[in-house]
Amino acid sequence: MKTKKILSLLLAVLMVMTVITACSTPTDPASTPAGDDTSSTAGDTSEVTPEGTGMYPGTPGEDSIVINLGSEPPELNSALSTDTISFQIFKHVYENLVMQDNEDKIIPGAAESWEISDDGLVYTFHLREGMLWSDGTTPVTANDYAFAIKTLIAPETAADYAYFGWIIKGAQAVTDGTGSVDDLGVKVVDDLTLEITLENPTPYAIDMFAFGSFAPINEAFYNEVGADKYGTEVEYILSNGAYTVSSWTHEDSLVMTKNDGYWDAANKAFIKEIKGVMIVDSNAALNAFKAGEVDMIGLTGEQVTMIKGEGYPVNQYNDGASWYLEFNLDESSVLANKNIRKALSLAIDREAYVATVEKNSSQPATSLCPPGLGVTGIDGDFQSKVGDLISTTADVEQAKTYLETGLSELGMTAEELGPQISMLLDDGDKPQLIGAFIKEQILSNLGVDISVEQMTFKSRLDRMSNKDFSIVFAGWGPDYNDANTFLDLFVTGNGNNHTSYSNARYDELISSAAAETDPNTRLEYFKELEQIIADDMMVTPIYWRVRDYITSEKVSGVYRSMFQDWNFVNATIV
Amino acid sequence: MMDNIERNKFKWVGPDIESGEAMARKSVTFGRDAMRRLFKNKAAGVCLVIIVLLLLLTILVPFFSPFTMNEQHLTHTNAPMGFVCTNEEQAGVVHLFGTDALGRDIFVRTWEGGRISLMIAFVAVFINFLVGVIYGGISGYMGGLVDNIMMRIVEVINGIPYLMVVILLKMVVGSSDPTGIVSLIVAYSAVGWTGMARLVRGQVVALKEQEFVIAAKALGAGSSRIIARHLLPNSLSIIIVEITLAIPSAIFTEAFLSFIGMGVTIPYCSWGSLANDGVTVFQLYPSQLWIPAICISLTMLSFNLFGDGLRDAFDPRLRR
Amino acid sequence: MLKYILKRVGYTVVTLFALLTLTFFIMHALPGDAFTGQKAIPPEVMANLEAKYGLDKPIGEQFVMYVGNFLRGDFGVSIKYNRPISTIISESFVYSLDLGVRALLFAVIAGVLLGILASVKRGTGWDTAAMLIAIIGVSVPSFIVGSVLQYFLGLQLFQATGIKFFAVTGWDAFNSKILPAFALSFGSLATISRLMRTSMLDVLGQDYIKTAKAKGLSNRKVIWKHAVRNAIMPVVTVLGPIAAAVLTGAFVVERIFSIPGLGKFFVQSVRENDYTMIAGTTMFYGTFLILANFVVDLAYGFIDPRVKLEGGK
Predict the structure, then answer these.
(1) Alpha carbon distance A315, A129 (integer Å)
(2) pLDDT for C181-208, tens place per residue?
(3) Which residues, in sequence order, are bridge partners of residue A196?
(4) Cβ pair B261:A427 closer than 8 A
(5) Is residue C196 part of a domain?
(6) Nearest residue in chain A measured CA to CA from B79
């Protein structure tokens, strides 16, 4: 009967606690409603320094922090990884030939210097002397970088991102099995010199070498561990960056510890230990943050409202993602009609969208490329040079005019049009909000009742590849810092162009831009491309995403940007 | 000792016919007796009233609400309970339960959601009942190899991942069912009937060896007569109880699917999807969680307690 | 008895094979492929990927290969994680088992006690109250119970007192294990307590209980020595399926409390077409379920209450 006593005791304790918490509720800032959220969101970015508010001191560790990764990195194999979490970890544990600074500008990494040939095709990298792998004995050599590229594009690796390597001469032929590695434009001149020859003079190639897929791989280690195991457990990882992965409990946590053997260890990695936990649920993440279990988390729109209501500073960064509606231009679809597409686009109030669905500092989109994204060789961001091509509020009058023209061309009524249009969305509650909002906007502004279908991600991709859709809500994030990363999406036959859009002028501009070396001429090409998108409306941009996050008061100097989701290499503990 | 009692202390009063009649109980049928006991059970009675009330609300509110479930009032999103609408056309009308993230009236959505939740539950359970009774009946009655094979099939079906069935059905049914309600019902029924089948089989196996069935057989009754006149009526009480308990389980399954994002979709909502939306914002707008949560809990409690009441009422051991 | 066991093992093998076959073909009918993510994969790369995982072969051949590997105990490698399925399942099952056993223990103890209380005080306020407690836990979807417990007892209690009674997330110290186990136990608690109540009522009406009372045994002794012992048998028999469900991973509770258990793989594998993982988790669960039922059937043969009753009296 001992268990019974313990049990009744436990129940009694629980009940008492429930009473205590119920009493404490009114004084707790967390539960005070922040009022109507619409008033406090838009543009409210006033910063309060976290120091001294004393609200969220963070985790107790003196030289360690805990951050929320959100989910498990599927694998830490730089040749295979495609997810942002893995790439964030690579930024900390691998030293690429070149790295990015706090403004995403290219700085020397493992290569202390490099030369580019006049035709823009040959890159010669000179590596630092005396760099070591994290085992403390193996030197880092040019071959480690050459091997990484060869592994990335090898057919037996079957890497999703093999095509990133295709900027290098002969690489595509290696992947599809028609060429040999011997003809590859990667040459190890000596231990400290690597020569890479490109297929085309790709202006943004140097940015790409900072990308995680080009992280070095030690050949001997890779072969010893075996391709199938490399990067799947902590003992199968060999790194050369500012941090090393020191423990990895799958689905639970991953710990990065400062690498004292790193070449710039004196000037980087001031935080000894970064523990990444994997909290999926957004409420759980916020609770864990408030309870001092985590030092940095991302926030949902409602959470932004709540934290701001508490007077605690919320940080933002523009993650460079642009979200848009993709229309199916296939002959079978009513959206092959340009006027209908324009009508739908003009019927959507993008400002209201951001205020009600996103509820954060995201911006209504006025063109495809987001602010902050540049054109190689041009100062400032591309978006400000393009200007506003799309209205951020609904223009109902004009939308109706387009609709009537479109309807008479199709020979149908608005009531007949509705059932012909189906919008595909992922499942989950956020897409449900998006779908409900857009459906209602089109219904109330145009009188067209479109249908919305939610399905799993894989089902949606399947429907899209079968052209069995009318509208899809999609987003794209930049791979490298050049407008080309967005604009080449809609080239005829691009695997990511689900719209079936094909325009000879568009294709011509993209290929001209690829061959052009003068930055100003390229800029003009890109501006024309944005104009074509605004005229043809095969896609209609909705918003540019800005992400919100909070850090506890102990963390300072964390850096988040478009190409580096989070970067703690220069961060410190207050 | 006996001698001490004198005879004149006792008096003959004769038979009391009137009160004798009163003490004897009327002969009642099993069903009537069950009903009587059911209504004597206060908890079950209250639950039945709640169920009827909830049903009435889900049926009637959408007809009489000044708001439709999908109209969005972007000027007052996430309004608190009792907020007075500021829209021109509906000025002065109260949002009893407030509004949600898109400014939709939660009161009308709650009852529209109840419609969907209850409809899914009732239809799915009805299908479960039909399939389960027939399958379990055959399996139990035939016995032997047939029974063995049929029960192994049930085991296999129980093992198949439910989500896979849902996704596949959504794909197959596809555009003709954009809201996903049909696929939810079919998917739930596709695996849900196995519980009923097991139960009915167990009941039939137990009953068919009983004396009255053997007697009926000996008198030359055919299989169909034995099943229809003896086995089914005697299993009915257990089946009815199982049905009342299967309804909450169907509502729960729908809520779980909503949680993993595979529940009812636009333009409909369900209690499950409302609760799931509520859970994400409950620290800020608690009422958006409590309202659907209370609806689900009330339904669950009512059906469960009502089911318990039914079980007690049908239980011959508890006949008094 | 041995013959019976052998027969059941034979059935189990056949059932599992049927399950494997059905799952294999259904999962390959799922929409989409296993590889495509947010960005399209060039056809050359796709061909290499399919070759790597043997998905380029005809489906029949794939099936034969898969069954062959399976018989050799090789579940294959997860397409998403590139780690062996057996490693992933065995690693995460440890957490799910730990959580499940705690939840189950709590559910059985509390459930049986509530059931006894309700039956002994049948028809009184105690009965109603006990059953209400039992049912109220199962009346709220677990994602609500989990989130609310976490917020009030995990966070608010900590903010109010400054003492960490319960951790919000994770699965390491003891204070992180109470809330999840509590949240997970509700469902089975209701089933067990209601079954216990019915069973107790049944037993309390039996002649031998009346005999025991007539012999002058105290009420307490009658209940604990005689009634409970016999009434608990049906509870044991339902523990099979309950254990299979609770121990093999609770998706919702594990997700809310950030516990690295097995539950997520059941959901995630299906959503992401991780074929090897779907087959692995399905077979794991199927085996567990069938074995649990098997064990219960065996136990039932041994401890049938009537058999014991006749022998004892």
Answers:
(1) 39
(2) 999 998 888 888 888 888 888 888 888 8
(3) A123, A186
(4) yes
(5) yes
(6) A36
Distance in Å from the first CA to the final CA of chain A: 52
A349-358, A416-425, B20-29: least confident range:
B20-29
DSSP letter assigned to residue B99: B
Residue type, A402: Y
The minimal CB distance from A459 to the residues B77, B171, B282 is found for: B171
- The answer to whether A144 and A134 are in contact (CB under 8 A) is no
Q: What are phi and psi of C90, to 5 degrees?
A: -70, -35
Strands (DSSP E) found in chain C: none
Does the pLDDT of residue C116 top 50, yes or no?
yes
**CA gap B220, A364 in Å, rounded:** 81
Residue with tokens 């063109």: A367
Number of domains in chain C: 1
C-alpha to C-alpha distance for A64 and A61, rounded to whole angstroms? 5
| CATH code of the domain containing C256 | 1.10.3720.10
Decide if C229 is inside a domain: yes
Q: Is the dihedral of CA B120, B126, B127, B128 positive or negative?
A: positive
The secondary structure element, H or E, covering residue A324 is strand A315-327
CB B76 within 8 Å of CB B85: yes
Locate the chain A residue with the closest alpha carbon to B259: A428
pLDDT-based confidence at B222, cuts 50/70/90?
confident
Same domain (yes/no): A380, A487: yes
Measured between beta carbons, the chain C residues lying within 8 angstroms of B202 are: none
Coil, strand, or helix at residue C41?
Answer: coil
Look at residue A58 and tell me if it is in a domain.
no
For C236-263, write each residue's pLDDT tens digit: 777 877 888 788 778 999 999 999 999 9
Inside any domain, residue C252: yes
Which residue, of A180, A205, A227, is where some domain finishes? A227
Cα–Cα distance measured from residue A467 to residue A470, given in angstroms and rounded to the nearest whole number: 8
Q: A406 lies in a domain?
A: yes
The residue of C253, C270, C289 whose CB has the most chain B CBs within 10 angstroms, and thus the best one to mutate to test that interface, is C270
Chains with at least 3 CB pairs less than 8 angstroms from chain A: B, C
CB B192 within 8 A of CB B128: yes
| Predicted ipTM of the assembly | 0.88
Phi, psi of A36 (to 5 degrees): -65, 125
Residue A228 with chain C: CB contacts under 8 Å: 77, 82
Q: What is the CATH number of the domain that holds A427?
A: 3.10.105.10
For chain A, the domain total comes to: 2
Question: Is the entire prediction scored with pTM above 0.90?
Answer: no
DSSP per-residue string spanning A478-537: -SSSSTHHHHGGGSTT-TT-TT----HHHHHHHHHHHH---HHHHHHHHHHHHHHHHHH-
Pair A361, A499 in one domain: yes
What pLDDT digit, counting tens, does each position of A446-490 carry? 999 998 888 888 888 888 888 889 999 988 999 888 999 999 999
Phi, psi (degrees; rounded to nearest 5) at A269: 55, 70
Choose the final residue of a domain: A195, A227, A259: A227
Note down the domain range covering C163: 89-261
Residue A300 belongs to a domain: no
Residue B260 corresponds to which amino acid?
I
Domains of chain B and CATH, by start:
30-318 (1.10.3720.10)
Q: What is the bridge-based pairing of β-strands A539-551 and A315-327? A: antiparallel
CA end-to-end span of chain C: 26
Q: How far C109 CA sits from the closest chain A CA (Å)?
A: 8
Nearest to B42 by CA among B251, B296, B263, B308: B308
How far apart are the C-alpha atoms of A458 and C270, rounded to whole Å?
10
> Do residues A132 and A139 lie in contact, with contact meaning Cβ atoms separated by under 8 Å?
yes
Whether residue A573 lies inside any domain: the answer is no
CATH number at residue A139: 3.90.76.10
- Domain with A173 in it: 73-227
Give just the sign of the alpha carbon dihedral A175, A177, A179, A181. positive
Distance CA A99, CA A211 (A): 8
